Amino acid sequence: MKKPLGLGRGLSALIDEAVKPAAADAPTDASATREVEVGRIRPNPLQPRKQFDEEAIDDLAASIAERGVLQPILLRAIDDGFEIVAGERRWRAAQRAQLHRIPAIVREFDDESTAEIALIENVQREDLSAIEEAEGYRQLIERFSHTQDAVGKLVGKSRSHVTNLLRLLDLPEAVRGMLLRGDISMGHARAIVSHPNSEALAQAIVADGLSVRQAEDLARAAKPRNSRGNSGREADDKRPVDADLAALERQLGDMLGLRVKVAHGRGGGNVTLHYSSLDQLDMICQRLSGEPI
């Protein structure tokens, strides 16, 4: 398996490690730049960021028109042109500034390295939405066979962070769109991600302007009742500790990176861990057995 790149060393070190041997006619200095025609450059289909702040690009375009592009973009040669590995915002802004050429570093990258560097660049700037970041993680896992642990090390995040974001991809498309647009927050999404009527809950959150805590209360109140039913006495026994159990579920969920359900009654209870992949099941088994993860 390919050795994961280390986020802490900076993007330049990542690029140097990912680069294949340069072609005979290519510059050998990793910092060497060339002027590339803007029209010969195309976006990277593996770019995790799908939404761009148009106002911010306009501001960048104004700066580029006055001062030029101060930092070259990173490209790889493909077909009869070039594909962006890192720097799509600068390329878009250069187009708006009506530049015909843009400084660039051209290197040889395979698809895996291209996807990794594109994700790392965006995570370092912390401007990806939760859904875009999750999609980037899923792409590395499904397309390039990364484990969740390897992805976490690649981007300098905990495994539970990766797992929690991947759970968001289980939300209906409409709810993912709300999160992508900023209509609901990451906290809202996590509160309703396991609910069968998450789309209706998300619409209620937006319509009523609910806080995350209110969204959690709404999700609990809207949960379907157990078909076998509980006696009124058992329901009364459980009701006073619901808030404590919910807090415990959140705490355990954050620690494990999984959805956790704690059921407590007069005679005891049970703890249920929900996993969505064999990778997560393996992690649970390792933790329970005390093996290093």
TrEMBL record:
Domain of life: Bacteria
UniProt keyword list: Chromosome partition, DNA-binding
Keyword DNA-binding on entry: yes
Coiled-coil regions listed in the entry: none
Compositionally biased spans, kind Basic and acidic residues: 231-241
SUPFAM superfamilies noted in UniProt: ParB/Sulfiredoxin
An example Gene Ontology biological process: chromosome segregation
Record-linked InterPro entries: Chromosome_partition/occlusion, HTH_ParB/Spo0J, ParB/RepB/Spo0J, ParB/Sulfiredoxin_sf, ParB_dimer_C, ParB_N
Region: Disordered, residue numbers: 22-49, 219-241
Molecular-function annotations in GO: DNA binding
Cellular-component GO terms for this entry: chromosome
Database matches in Gene3D superfamilies: 1.10.10.2830, 3.90.1530.30
Function: Involved in chromosome partition. Localize to both poles of the predivisional cell following completion of DNA replication. Binds to the DNA origin of replication.
PANTHER family: CHROMOSOME-PARTITIONING PROTEIN PARB-RELATED (PTHR33375:SF1)
Entry-linked NCBIfam families: parB_part
Similarity comment: Belongs to the ParB family.
Protein name according to UniProt: ParB/RepB/Spo0J family partition protein
Organism: Sphingomonas rhizophila
